[in-house]
Structure formats: C-alpha cells, structure tokens
Amino acid sequence: MLYREDPKSGNQLSILGLGCMRFVRGITGQIDIDRAEALCKAAVEAGVNYFDTAYVYGGSEQALGQVFARNPGLRTKIYLATKLPVHNCKAYEDFDKIFGQQLERLRTDNVDYYLIHNLTSLADWEGLVALGIEGWIQEKKAAGQIKQLGFSFHGTQVEFFKLLEAWPWEFVQIQYNYSNENYQAGRLGLQKAHEMGLPVIIMEPLLGGKLANGLPKKAEQLLAGAAPDRSPASWAMRWIWDQPECTLALSGMNAPEQLEDNVKTANESPAGCLDERERQALQSAGDAFRETFKIPCTGCNYCMPCPKGVNIPGCFAAYNASRAVGLFTGFQQYFSSTDAVHPATCHSPYQCVQCGQCEKKCPQNIAIMARLRDVRKKFEPRIFHTVLKLAAKRK
C-alpha cells in the first residue's frame, strides 16, 4: 500500500480509504455484520488505514462498532472518520447529544477525523457558529475526543472558497472524478485546499460505481484500447492518485474482488503514475461519458454566483446524471448539492426569479432559465413543496 502524508498532523494515510456507507445488507435491510467484518479485516491486512462513516449512514457506525468489538486492536490500526449532520443540529446541546451517540455506536472514545457533514455554503457554517459550535469543537479537541476537524462539501466552487477561509480546518472532503472534474469544488478547489496545506479526501471517485460498471460502450472501448487489462475502476482511481493534491480516495467497496482490484491499483499508483497517452485516453473517455448528458454544461461556474443562490452547475450535473447514470444517482446528487428540503439554505431552481444574469455569462450559450425549469420539473414537482409545507406544520 502507498501512503501520503497529512501535512497537518503528520499522519501517513493509505491512498485508498474504505467508505463504509455501502456495506452489504441482507433482505431485511440490516448490514450483514459478518461480511462487513471480513471486508474490514481484509482491508486492514492490505494496508488500508482510513475508514469513513457517518451518523446518517443507516447503521454503518453501529456495524463498525461491532467489528471493533469483535476484533480487539483493530480500532488502533486505522484512522476513523465520521461526520456531524448539520441539519440535525438545532441547539448547542445537539452537538454533544449526537457526538455521544456516535462514540457509543462506534465503541470508541475518540474520532481521528471528524467532519461537519454536507456543508453547501458559508451560511450553513455560520448557522452552526451561531449555535456555538466553535467553542464546542475547541472543547472536544482539548479533551482529545476529536483529533482533526474538517468538512465535507457539496456546494458551489465560490462557496467552497469562502468556507476554506471561515475556520482553521485541518482537512477537507470533496467529490471529484474524471467525469466531472469541475463539479462542486472542482480542480480549482482541490488545488486551493492543497495550497493551504490541507489534506484533501476524495469521495465519489467512481461516481457511485458508475465509472466502474456504467460507462457507455464508446468510453469502455477508448480505455480498453489504451490498456486492455485494466478495469474501468482502476482507470478512475489512477486518475485521482495521479494528482499529488489528492491525499486519499474513498471507495465504497462491499465485495472482496472490489477490494482486491483497488488495492492492486493503489500499490501501482504514486503521484504522476499516468503518462500523457493515458491521460488523453481518460479525457476522451470522459468526453464520451459526457456526450450522454442532456444539458451541455461543463461546470465552468461562469454563471455563478446566482443572486438568489441557485446552484446552477450542481442542478445541471444532477439532471445529466439522472439521464446518463440513473434516476437514483440524479436525485442523490440533486438533494446533496441544492439542499432543497431545507428552505432556509436551499440552492434549488425554486429560488430562480428569471433575472437572466446567468445566461449573459454562459460560454456554452445554454438557455439556463428554461433548463432550470426542466430540472425543477424533474426533481421538485408541485407535490414536493406541498409535502414540505405539510411536514413543517406538523413540527
């Protein structure tokens, strides 16, 4: 296994991290603990030393806690990351309540890498600051219960840059892959965080598995022509690890063969592992993947910032993903990047007032306002807001 240094702590982190959101579940929907245990043990034996989970990952924290209990000493061999859910925090007391539950679930007394989960804007962070989170963080760090403090991001590039300056973060986590390298924080965000001395954790390097098993034929053929013995997943992971700014890439592995393929690739992928011919093959494969997109948005962010806060590139990326990859992935991307279910911090087309400023700046000449209506129709039909209003009245 290859490792890269976290410059903030000096920790040597495996370039492959285990994302624990996709542990195998049985027919009842419960995580299969035996299979999760086998996967965790095999990952550690292969040199993986970074495990990522979250409060909202449906039993993942509890499953890891059981694995640690069954295997004394395993917890000390890995760096454990979990996340504080922003929208579950309505008062200062919620920080301790949630964190206490997490420690209990994980059967540990500390977290190595703790993230503020799913920040989409500076306003999200300022809302937590108003509740007193800065003092709470300092208290937990002084007690040794939180070692490194960071955030995971799902907003626009402009908001990412603002968040980088808002607190002395010790790491960040961003979505990044070769099919949409300008999406959300994007390459510029990656480079800025690296310049600030922050380790950058990469999530969705395989776009939820779609860059491993969902490529169009043309893209598959382009990659196979450059290296016939290399899996599509291996190509995608190499693209990440080729870049020295990427500290590690998380993969939601849930099968031994996935772990084996990723470990083999990780062992062969130092920074600069690709040559120009291979980089061109990936560029061409990415172009072929994007040809399936219905809205020709490149994620350049020239249309931003929207005066009403609409995450235009995020909306279009989710719409394209719903067509090219699948409706579930589209919905997942849409709600993570627009926060549409929380009116106070919403960045969805519902906020659009048809001012037209975005269209004047779009180098692709996209009819942005009309396409945002298409996005809204797909992801936020009229009944959506009726349901939200009814739910708000019941609280």
Written account of the structure:
- The protein is α/β, with parallel strands linked by helices.
- 46% of the residues lie in helices and 13% in strands.
- It is built from 17 helices and ten strands.
- The strands form two sheets. An eight-stranded parallel beta barrel has the order 3-4-5-6-7-8-9-10, surrounded by six helices. A two-stranded antiparallel sheet has the order 1-2.
- The longest helix has 15 residues.
- The radius of gyration is 21 Å and the shape is globular.
Keywords:
395 residues, 2 domains, 17 helices, eight-stranded parallel barrel, alpha/beta, 13% strand, TIM Barrel, two-stranded antiparallel sheet
Specify the number of helices: 17
Order of helices and strands: EEEHEHEHEHHEHEHEHHHEHHHHHHH
Assigned CATH superfamily of the largest domain: NADP-dependent oxidoreductase domain
Radius of gyration: 21 Å
Quote the average pLDDT: 91
**Poorly predicted residue ranges:** none
Count of distinct strands: 10
Please state how the strands of the largest beta sheet are arranged side by side. Answer: 3-4-5-6-7-8-9-10
**Beta fraction:** 5-15%
**CATH architectural arrangement of the largest domain:** Alpha-Beta Barrel
| Helix and strand composition category | alpha/beta
Work out the count of structural domains: 2
Percent helix range = 40-55%
Ends apart, CA distance between termini: 50 Å
| Main beta sheet | 8 strands, parallel, barrel
- What spatial form do the alpha-carbon principal axes imply? globular
Could you tell me the CATH topology label of the largest domain.
TIM Barrel
Using the coordinates above, name the CATH class of the largest domain.
Alpha Beta
